[in-house]
Amino acid sequence: MWLFFGFGGLCRLRKHGSNCPQLAGELKYFCNASVIYEFAGHRGCDTARVNDYGLSYFDDYVLGSTYECGSVSIDQASIIAFAKEFDPQPFHVDPVAAAAGPYGGLIASGWHTAALVMRLLVENYLAAESSLGSAGLDELRWPHPVRPGDTLRVRATVVESRRSLSKPDRGIVKTVVEAASQDGTTVMRAAAINFMLVRPDAGA
Amino acid sequence: MWLFFGFGGLCRLRKHGSNCPQLAGELKYFCNASVIYEFAGHRGCDTARVNDYGLSYFDDYVLGSTYECGSVSIDQASIIAFAKEFDPQPFHVDPVAAAAGPYGGLIASGWHTAALVMRLLVENYLAAESSLGSAGLDELRWPHPVRPGDTLRVRATVVESRRSLSKPDRGIVKTVVEAASQDGTTVMRAAAINFMLVRPDAGA
Predict the structure, then answer these.
(1) How would you class B26 by CB atoms within 10 Å of its CB: exposed for 0-12, middle for 13-18, buried for 19 or more?
(2) How high is the ipTM of this complex?
(3) Which residues of B touch A138 (CB under 8 A)?
(4) H or E segment and range at residue B79
(5) Which residues of A touch B118 (CB under 8 A)?
């Protein structure tokens, strides 16, 4: 389900759920005064090029800025499917064993949570035209379990932003990423390190 | 494909590739003098209970010990499929765009690499009978890209091992996890924090 609502003067396009909506194929060009949202017709929103905040290049990631990156719900079937492929521990794949286990029920693999969070960052925070990938994370924590039916809200805050000394065409952005469940409980926290191209006309 | 070969006096059962082999369903009980390998017949190796090294409880994770955790190959189709769901950046999902991009070709999402590594840890290192999940990681790095056709070898080293002060039934194991490609290049490094039950007869 997609919800449209105003946010800080920009028309926000927010995605709820992890699957690309059928609607996306029809939203070829959806624009307002300052941002063009472009969606390719094939494979839903896979190639969305400009995020809602107009974050395009390194220069746009201003120290201290916080961005709400939307939300995603997680259900039991997807928890089990992911974990059977990548993290087949009893409390991720077997509802009966999980009920008698340390969490009193099925919980999502932390890697599943991280992957869902990443999806929202790609859609709402990382600029496709300048993202050069990630060196990794300085910290990754799962302080509370994620359970079937939870809806996670993701927020990204720029905590470090500096030009590369060795490669002047890029900068390093460090981001604290937080995911909270519907009751406000933090379920994931990470400090990610990303490389981004500087704006071509920004000079060396 | 499964390969059997001797290793330090133990018969090693090593998995190559990320999918559970059909063979696994037939290996109901495979044992030697010191270790029992048990595989449930349904859903391949999802419910393997005892890992190759006989790591069962916190007490078995000895500081400084290193464990080879097998290997996994990654192909272009799986790289694209994972990334389309979780990390749809051009250099993960679009071979043409990737060829012109910063890596000169398609590379795997770091989260895909991490998930594949996790699978090998669950199968070869984390004890199903005592694993209580993970608090997270102190560090996660992807120093070199993973490309289609790469085969990653995973190694786990216990770098910290201490009993919990507040919950005497468990201990905290910190593990440095390293994944290297076929030419020895490190493609992932992590410091994971896991909670494990102490052996029931070990006392408080």
Answers:
(1) exposed
(2) 0.77
(3) 139
(4) helix B76-86
(5) 86-87, 109, 111
CB atoms within 10 A of CB B127: 22
d(CA B125, CA B131): 10
Query: How is residue B21 annotated by DSSP?
Result: P
> How far is the CA of B89 from the CAs of A61, B93, B101, B147, in angstroms?
18, 6, 11, 15
- pLDDT tens by residue, A10-46: 323 333 333 332 223 222 222 222 222 222 222 233 3
Residue of A nearest to B83 (CA): A119
Contact check, Cβ <8 Å, A86/B145? no
Q: Which residue of B has its CA nearest to A197?
A: B102
Whether the per-residue pLDDT at A158 is higher than 80: the answer is yes
This prediction has a pTM of 0.78
At how many degrees (to 10) do helices A110-124 and B76-86 cross?
70
Query: In angstroms, rounded to a whole number, what is the distance separating the alpha carbons of residues A170 and B193?
Result: 33
What pLDDT was estimated at residue B169? 95
pLDDT tens-digit readout, B99-148: 999 999 999 999 999 999 999 999 999 998 899 999 999 999 999 999 99
CA distance A189 to A113: 11
A119 vs B85: CB contact, 8 Å cut-off? yes
Choose among A47, A87, A126: nearest Cβ to B118. A87
